[in-house]
């Protein structure tokens, strides 16, 4: 679990990010989950957008991803999710070092 200070820090870091994964009419399928896992391993912090043509609800998507991938939902704004997870690769753990220091 993230503390409120860590969450605030991550929100600031995510502000300039563009959503790199979009969930559309196929919903939250395994392909998208794999993309999210890979993106988090590479970046640790990503934005995911739920397109208008999806039946998925942001809250449900966040809960499923938290359970299955073990990530933290930093923030939900409308149809955008900001997701964070420490990278499993040491060389990509720049952000998580900063988060732990908070």
UniProtKB/TrEMBL annotation:
<dbReference type="Pfam" id="PF01985">
    <property type="entry name" value="CRS1_YhbY"/>
</dbReference>
<protein>
    <submittedName>
        <fullName>FIG004454: RNA binding protein</fullName>
    </submittedName>
</protein>
<dbReference type="GO" id="GO:0003723">
    <property type="term" value="F:RNA binding"/>
</dbReference>
<dbReference type="InterPro" id="IPR035920">
    <property type="entry name" value="YhbY-like_sf"/>
</dbReference>
<keyword id="KW-0694">RNA-binding</keyword>
<dbReference type="InterPro" id="IPR017924">
    <property type="entry name" value="RNA-binding_YhbY"/>
</dbReference>
<feature type="domain" description="CRM">
    <location>
        <begin position="1"/>
        <end position="96"/>
    </location>
</feature>
<dbReference type="InterPro" id="IPR051925">
    <property type="entry name" value="RNA-binding_domain"/>
</dbReference>
<dbReference type="InterPro" id="IPR001890">
    <property type="entry name" value="RNA-binding_CRM"/>
</dbReference>
